[in-house]
Amino acid sequence: MKEKKYLITVVVMMVAAFISALNNVLLNNALPSIMDEFQIASFATTQWLTTSYMLTAGVLIPASAFFITRFKSRNVFLTALMLFNIGTILAYFSTSFSFLLVSRIIQACGASVLSPLLMNIMITVFDREDRGKAMGMYGFIIMFAPSIGPTISGVLIDFFNWRALFLMILPFSLICLIVGFFKVDSLLPVDIHKKMDYLSVVLSGAGLSAILLGVNQFSNANSNLLISIGIIVVGLILVGLFIKRQFSIGNPLLDLSIYKFPMYALSSILLALLAMLMYSTMVTIPYFLQKVQLQSVSISGLVMLPPSVASVIAMPICGRWFDKYGIKPMAYSGFSIILITTLALSQLTMTTSLLWIVLVLIVRNVGTAMIMMPIQAYGLNQLPDKLNPSGTATNSTIQQVFGAVGTSVVTIAMTSISSRQEISLQGQGQLAEKALLVAIDYSQYIFVGIAIVALVIAYFLKSKSMYKAPVLEV
Q1: Of 73, 61, 33, 37, which Cα lies nearest the Cα of 159?
Q2: In Å, what is the CA distance from 456 to each residue of 279, 321, 371, 435?
Q3: Residues 305 and 157 reside in one and the same domain
Q4: How far is CA 21 from CA 47, 104, 146, 171, 298, in A?
Q5: Cα(301)–Cα(286) distance, rounded to whole angstroms?
Q6: Directed axis angle between helix 48-70 and helix 73-92, to 10°?
Q7: 278-289 as b/e, with b when 16 or more CB fall inside 10 Å?
């Protein structure tokens, strides 16, 4: 770290980012309880509590590059955390579903800025040669929250109710706000002449939200396929107009000149493929355990816990390996591990042991950790410092969009294959379970192909490549 005095600023922001990441996953287990309390008939309606959070982030993450560049990082942090606290308090006192939905959107307005801000702080206070270690620490925080979130929420809901989820995180969030007010410093350069291009905000927000909404609809069996495709097409058109505008105006919302750096562009492609590979497993394994092996929700959660912990432990270690060995061996090793474990998961049976699944997922998550933060550190190392806010915002958007794409791809594949298998397996026992098993196994081959493509692209990476500022001759 460049200056030890920055330590308290980094720690406070890391804790705040952890709280916001934890908040993002806590509510998943609470949706049935919320349905009962507010007497909501449709689960799809209740899911808007998570969908709205995702869509709000889709609007604000691209704009975070502007906020981080235009305003002091301290003020951005305090404003974002204040919004998050207001949303949390309102959510706790919600008296209707609509009130709770608005509260979640307010929460998301603050939370969506905290993660890109922390990443920019980390890559500023650490030298380029140590960014792997910095991103490993960042990954530890971001991955630790989802690994313990389901367990914490399950206990709180069983012993109290869904409101306890908001009450639990509020004291920690308020402490971060108070400490941040007195102790957090502004560490990033400020461009007071940068102006907000509101048309770009509308185009990026509406476009990304439409893509995420359309992709999300594919996961809903009751959705109209043509309408979902239409929403995605509209979203792609709006994003295309957004991209065109960024290159045609002098003060872009998101500086897409980052893609003039070839190694950053390659890192973005690999990050997108990795996001699809990660989120596909999050869907298929719990579905296999609950719908094929008929395990309980709690057993399913316990199976996913050790792999999550393994990835959390591996993140800082892999960050140091990246600093020492460079990106190429990390990418080769990581994607090879993912490829082998994906093939292993394509051989699941009705009697596959839980221990075997846990071990495969642990190995797979270590492979993921070898790529996830190192590839982002590598990409940002290709950029001049002034482009870091655009680079981090783009990385966050890529993960969100392509994670949703990966989820929908595997859902569509499983639904389609399962329907055909039910016809061919007519007359056999456990018809639905066997059809789902075949669908889950076959769907893995899609991601085998994605892992192979990633390995091919990784060949073109330059292991120790790093941006060097031009030397001015005097």
Answers
A1: 33
A2: 21, 22, 15, 33
A3: no
A4: 18, 13, 7, 16, 21
A5: 8
A6: 160
A7: bbbbbbbbbbbb
List the end-to-end C-alpha distance of the chain, in Å, as a whole number: 31
Instruction: Please indicate, yes or no, whether residues 225 and 313 belong to a single structural domain of this protein.
Output: no
Say yes or no: 359 and 236 in one domain.
no
Rounded to whole angstroms, the Cα distance separating 266 from 261 reads 9
Note whether 271 and 245 are same-domain residues.
no
pLDDT in tens, 49-91: 877 777 787 678 778 878 888 888 889 999 999 999 999 999 9
- What distance lies between CA 106 and its chain's CA centroid? 19
- Cα(396)–Cα(138) distance, integer angstroms: 13
Q: Is the domain of 124 the same as that of 208?
A: no
- What's the pLDDT tens digit per position in 399-452? 877 877 777 777 777 777 766 665 555 545 455 677 778 878 788 888 899 999
**Least confident segment among 150-154, 238-242, 345-349:** 150-154
Residue 353 half-sphere exposure toward CB, CA atoms < 13 A: 4
SS (H, E, C) the chain: CCCHHHHHHHHHHHHHHHHHHHHHHHHHHHHHHHHHHCCCCCHHHHCHHHHHHHHHHHHHHHHHHHHHHHCCHHHHHHHHHHHHHHHHHHHHCCCCHHHHHHHHHHHHHHHHHHHHHHHHHHHHHCCHHHHHHHHHHHHHHHHHHHHHHHHHHHHHHHHCCCHHHHHHHHHHHHHHHHHHHHHCCCCCCCCCCCCCCHHHHHHHHHHHHHHHHHHHHHCCCCCCHHHHHHHHHHHHHHHHHHHHHHHHCCCCCCCHHHHHCHHHHHHHHHHHHHHHHHHHHHHHHHHHHHHHCCCCHHHHHHHHHHHHHHHHHHHHHHHHHHHHHCHHHHHHHHHHHHHHHHHHHCCCCCCCCHHHHHHHHHHHHHHHHHHHHHHHHHHHHCCCHHHHHHHHHHHHHHHHHHHHHHHHHHHHHHHHHHHHHHHHCCCCCCHHHHHHHHHHHHHHHHHHHHHHHHHHHHCCCCCCCCCCCCCCCC
Q: Give the total number of structural domains in the chain.
A: 3
Instruction: Give the domain extent around 366.
Output: 255-465
The tokens for 256 are 């897409």
Cα 298 to chain centroid, rounded: 23
* Whether residues 132 and 248 fall in one domain: no
Alpha carbon distance 266, 458 (integer Å): 8
